[in-house]
Amino acid sequence: MPVRHALTTLLLALAALLVPGAGAAAARAPLPPAFTISGLDLHDTQLARFGDTYYLYGSMYGCGYEWYVADTPWCGFGVSTAPSPQGPWSTPRPLFDPTTVDPWTDDSWQVTCGGTGQGCFNPRMIRRSGWGRDDGVFILWFNSPRHYTVDNRTNAYNAMGCASAAGPCGPGVTPNGSYNKPTLKICAGNGDFGFIASGTPGGRPALVCTLPGAAQLNIEELDQWGSGGRAVGVRQVAGLRNVEGPGGYWDPVARRYVLTYADPACGYCAGTPIGYATAPSLYSGWTAPGNVGWSAPLNGRRVFNGNSCGGQPRTVTVLDGQPWQIIDLWLGTRNETAAATHLVPLSYTPSPGVAGDGRVWRPPLALAC
């Protein structure tokens, strides 16, 4: 009996290896619980760990900013710190003075971000460490839609060198203060964006961006400075259109890149479907599940949660090896000072099946809100 039991165990293990995704599922650790960060005037956030400290970056609304209201005050970007993702979080402090000069236009950032009411959004801090120049410098990216819609229709993105992970950032700051209008070929547009770290040791991060109009997703590799692109990447990821709020990560167990996004795009929505796409390579092979049938919704199988826990997907962050979906719990108003941020752990488990096979479809991702 012991021999038979051992043989049975061995056969089951071998069978698991032959079933796509079975080994990946077995290697997964239990997921941590979702949590909400509230009471901070930080929105469209990024949560990152540098050293032993966690940093929450976001747009601020408390000075009275209202979306698409002309000459609205723009409150700038802030950062809070904490010893753990659950807090306690410090009082937000600005990453740079919103009244200072926008080097691209020679107007103030107040004019750039508040003049038309289009705002400036998506503060994203990256560190030039383990890739490119590998000198540990912090770089703040954000988008300013007016640069695209009014000011010469250049791309809307900006990159500032920072003194530390908590700022300050921009020209005149010591050390490493700088400003650069990124040179971008594939992400030469305007819209929400995020970064995906390379799964290859020493590989550079990639900018994943939405383009105006069709709101397609493109991906472009950063240059050695982390303040521009290299014209290496992919356009119209998985053929997606009318999506936004992208973010992604490399899954070392499944050996795939996983990308999430709001599907469809909308403004300050309190409930938006979230979809996904995957690829074996950062710059090729992206796919998202299709659908079949008369008047079948295109996102019918790629959406893995219908309301994103009552919010809108913003981006993905990886903390201590665990990917998290960041969700804005919007109030649906032009001023979102009181809106909270929700984080849900992600785990990718490959799921067999194609549209029209007549089988039950279980998406490989889920949100345990």
TrEMBL record:
- The source's domain of life comes to Bacteria
Keywords per UniProt: Signal
Signal peptide, first to last residue: 1-24
UniProt name for this protein: Uncharacterized protein
Q: Which organism is it from?
A: Streptomyces showdoensis
